[in-house]
Design goal:
Chain lengths: 475, 249
């Protein structure tokens, strides 16, 4: 707005918005408040216009969690102040639009690290808490909600309310992971993790079968702070590479506090020391088809297998934010975008179920270009994806030709996962049916009670909430 | 090739807009006719008949912040279904004297030909990008090729519209949305009636047929109508400025 021009109407920006996977789009009128009081005013405006609002952070959810169901979007990206940071106690209070990147850059020089970070540093804290994200340490640290002391929300009625993890246990477990449907998160107070080094001790080991990968992944959970496995979805064996990492203890890092400096955390500018980061996506383009990705996956495994089990040190940022290493990597999925199907299966059944899922993909002729496996633990959040078991995340390219078959495949995989007592993850989901979701989440009845109490008019919604029928009056 | 189901034609009360609307309706596309003159579009809608056409009174100069366009679009979609074709055919050409500099006239032309066009094209774009399909047709003009001394604001408005359409075409290509720029030559409409020195004059219906043929290919493009005007355009564009200012065109 130029000086002297009249104040714009609320929600005056028009955007075509997509989920992070760009497989689903929506038209939106966007408002970008700068403060919590603006949020209340915008919700009041929406209610007056008899329209419903969707809260959106950085738009990093793969599916439709941050896409509007009724045009209006409240984008929290401009609420990005750090409100308080206790350097001694390791406690920080931030506005919801503060990104994971802004968070770690703020706290690292003081010897702290976010206790849970997702595989990219671009999401906002509001989004992370609303979807209760996890990292490569979910099996030992839980999801981010377990490190949140309190949040402040603005309810659909416009009232501000502090929700404490200790004093408001029930509500806390509904709002965290509640996909922004019970209130707009306007601040998050998070406990941080004390670290003495900005480096991790990383170990990589290749294994020739899914069973071996799962066993090694499980075994390494014992002595590691982070564990993740990559799996070659094209191979019948389910071969893959397990990466485990642990924070360096005091005295282990000769560089000492130097590695806590931000410049020690910059992501490598060249991949494998050769290819400039911003050219990698371009170089991947010729491989952006089934046979090409089969080759890339096989090569990745072969290189790791040839090297054998090896240890190295890696900066925290380089280890955690794999997805940020290659800018524009999504473009290899153009023009139809990608979806990710992530399923969480109890430990006893996981290897078998995940093997079956990979086989189903191969049988359907729709193979995941990137498959990732992680270990998890259960938690008390109402819409939690946490489980004592393993997750398998499968990235699929969407095309006009495969869209219908792909959705059908995901539906069939959902049934297998449900049959094994598994869960799903709202930050990723785009294909689940309301029936699937209801069956996977017994906590949904209690969630709806909160919805009826806090937002009886159903002002807060999203394309995901509509699809999964999470409204106050829906069953 | 695009098979449209529902179209909005802005500026449908006469000329190219009317002819395009009639041809669309004849091809079983449901059409919303928009114009300032309600009696005209209602008559045309009646003639088209049945449920294939609706008429909405709309003054393109009155788009404000664009919210009215969005509301009107919703209202039209409630009547004829999801719109997958926008034809922006509204245009204002107000004669100005050789030594006249009346801002009110310039403003009126810019409001219709550029601001109104932007309001409608933006609304079409934001919806069609999300829908991953659709067609936007803008009736611009060869008048935007050069800054002629006879019609400064008109030329500027059409140059602006042409550039806007080109930018939208480049922006929306990835979304599967086609943006078609049409630069008609002399078409026998109310706008050209009484003008002297016209040549290669074609009827509005003939122009509409060519326009829809281009739009239906499903390939985003910029076309002169009829095609031979491309040659005129190329010659005019190539004249050096110091010569151009001495000519009486």
């Amino acid at each position: 707005m130029t000086p002297g021009s009249p104040p714009a109407a609320p929600f005056h920006e028009w955007h075509a918005l997509a989920g992070w996977g760009r497989a689903v789009w929506a038209t939106a009128r966007v408002a970008r408040p700068r403060a919590a009081d603006d949020v209340a005013a915008l919700l009041a405006y929406a209610a007056e216009q008899r329209r419903r609002v969707t809260v959106r952070g950085a738009g990093r959810s793969y599916g439709d969690a941050a896409l509007p169901a009724d045009l209006l979007v409240l984008d929290t990206g401009r609420m990005r102040r750090v409100l308080a940071f206790d350097r001694d106690e390791g406690r920080i209070t931030v506005e919801p639009g503060v990104t994971v990147e802004q968070l770690w850059r703020t706290v690292l020089p003081a010897g702290w690290w976010p206790p849970v970070v997702p595989g990219t540093m671009r999401p906002t804290l509001g989004g992370c808490v609303a979807l209760n994200v996890h990292g490569k340490n979910q099996y030992c640290a839980g999801s981010i909600g377990e490190h949140v002391e309190e949040i402040e929300i603005v309810s659909a009625r416009g009232t501000r309310r502090v929700v404490s993890a200790v004093r408001d246990v029930d509500l806390f477990h509904a709002v965290v992971g509640g996909a922004g449907l019970l209130g707009v998160i306007v601040s998050v107070t998070l406990r941080l993790l004390r670290i003495t080094s900005g480096l991790l001790d990383v170990c990589a080991a290749a294994h020739g079968s899914l069973d071996e990968v799962a066993q090694d992944l499980d075994r390494r959970c014992g002595g590691s702070d982070y564990v993740v496995a990559w799996i070659d979805g094209f191979s019948r064996s389910g071969r893959g590479v397990v990466h485990s990492a642990r924070h360096l203890r005091e005295g282990e890092d000769a560089s000492g506090a130097d590695s806590l400096r931000l410049d020690a955390q910059e992501l490598p500018q060249r991949l494998l020391g050769v290819v400039p980061r911003d050219r990698v996506a371009l170089l991947m383009k010729p491989f952006a088809h089934g046979p090409g990705m089969r080759f890339v996956n096989a090569a990745k495994y072969r290189v790791a297998a040839l090297r054998g089990e090896h240890r190295f040190r890696q900066s925290l940022a380089a280890f955690h934010f794999l997805l940020d290493h290659v800018p524009g990597w999504r473009s290899i999925y153009d023009p139809g975008g990608l979806i990710q199907h992530q399923s969480f299966v109890p430990a006893a059944a996981a290897a078998e179920v995940h093997g079956e899922l990979l086989a189903m993909c191969r049988a359907a002729g729709i193979v995941s270009w990137l498959a990732v496996c992680k270990r998890h633990r259960p938690d008390a959040f109402l819409l939690s994806h946490g489980i004592d078991g393993f997750s398998l995340a499968l990235d699929f390219r969407v095309t006009d030709a495969n869209r219908e078959r792909l959705w059908r495949l995901c539906g069939e995989m959902d049934r297998v996962v449900l049959g094994a007592g598994g869960h799903f993850y709202l930050a990723k989901d785009l294909t689940a049916s309301p029936e699937t979701f209801r069956a996977a989440y017994p906590g949904i009845a209690r969630f709806r009670e909160w919805k009826r109490e806090l937002d009886p008019g159903g002002v807060l919604t999203s394309a995901l909430a509509e699809r999964l029928r999470l409204g106050p009056a829906q069953e | 090739m695009d098979n449209w189901t529902s179209a909005i034609v802005v500026g449908a009360s006469s000329g190219i807009g009317e002819a395009v609307a009639r041809r669309l309706a004849a091809a079983d596309v449901r059409v919303a006719l928009l114009a300032r003159r309600g009696d005209e579009i209602e008559r045309i809608a009646r003639e088209i008949g049945g449920e294939r056409a609706v008429a909405r009174v709309h003054d393109v100069r009155d788009v404000g912040d664009g919210a009215g366009v969005a509301d009107l679009w919703d209202d039209i979609e409630a009547a004829i279904g999801t719109v997958d074709l926008l034809v922006f055919a509204a245009g204002a050409m107000i004669p100005v004297g050789e030594h006249e500099y009346t801002f009110a006239k310039d403003r009126a032309m810019l409001e219709v030909n550029l601001l109104g066009a932007a309001a409608w094209c933006d609304q079409a774009a934001v919806r069609m990008e999300a829908a991953r399909r659709g067609t936007i047709v803008g009736i611009s003009s060869i008048a935007g090729d050069r800054g002629r001394r006879g019609a400064p604001a008109y030329a500027a408005s059409k140059a602006g519209f042409t550039t806007l359409l080109e930018a939208l075409r480049n922006r929306l290509a990835r979304a599967g949305v086609n943006v078609v720029t049409i630069r008609p030559g002399f078409v026998d409409t109310a706008m050209t009636r009484g003008m002297k020195g016209l040549f290669w004059l074609i009827s509005a219906d003939r122009a509409a047929a060519i326009i829809l043929r281009h739009a239906r290919t499903g390939r985003s493009r910029d076309r002169h109508v009829p095609a031979r005007w491309w040659l005129v355009s190329a010659v005019i564009r190539s004249i050096p400025s110091w010569i151009f200012r001495k000519l009486s065109i």
